[in-house]
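quick one before i forget lol
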Amino acid sequence: QVNNKNESSFLGFDLPTQVLLALLPRVYLQHNPERLLDIGLGTGTTVWFAQKWAREVDSIEINPDVYTAVSRFFFPEFKNAENINFIFQEARFYLATTDKKYDIITVAPSYPTDAVTASLYTKEAFKVYSQALSDDGVLGLPFTLTSCKLMRFQYLVNVISPVQVLYANVWFDFNRDGDWDDSATCPIAVANIIADEWAVQNQTLVGLPLGLNTVTSLSFRPFQPAGVNEEDPIWMRITLSEQPYTPTAAGSGLVGSGGSGPAGGYRFGETEDYIFKPKRTCYRSPDLNCDNFVDTYDLAIMAAKWLQIVP
């Protein structure tokens, strides 16, 4: 803990996320990555797994006491690791002043809404990450989706030449069947609302200025199918193009054609695929630490929250 807040843990709902932050970006790359940057040491789990395959791992942690605790209680091997560099600086300042390029940058600080860590999710921060990545580098960071609830997210569009209109489309393989063709019914109030894997449909971007632009997506509803492990990885595709996406033109309605472009291709734009590992979170439940048991640990969490709000 730092300032009475859990920074990380080896519990079931934390450990898979920390491990996969080190492993999933490596799967996405088309070559063996050489250099990884991890922002926020936590328990050191992400760094520990990354150093097993990366030639060089840089770990940025703003609080040196976190490293002291981790190297003493969790990973004493860090003290003698030859391919890990521990850097005690503010992450954006470090990236703005280094010439290093990274194949993978993982960003997973705890409590991203806190004043210190919120700065790692700003437009300026993403610009710094982009500049520090190698040509086909991968950025790994948390992404929140709640089943059947209206969601939006922000993304960056870098305009390098004037263009009047662009169309943004986003797909998620919510049911993990290997395509982006499916939908589900969400019972909302007295109606049934359709949630589609084609989540963001032809969002029109008009007259974006040159340079980096922060765009908020259209609203959409994710869905978590029954019988599918909610912590299984999800593939996401985002496409930016000069013409709208038309399902029939993309694949004549054939199964597996979701997310594909027109037969002749787009004239310009970009398509990027990402894979991420959902982290299960419970809400409005006595099981406050999501360990599938209601016990004194949940009582302690409830008491701590109560003490934070009482006079």
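fyi The longest strand covers residues 198-206.
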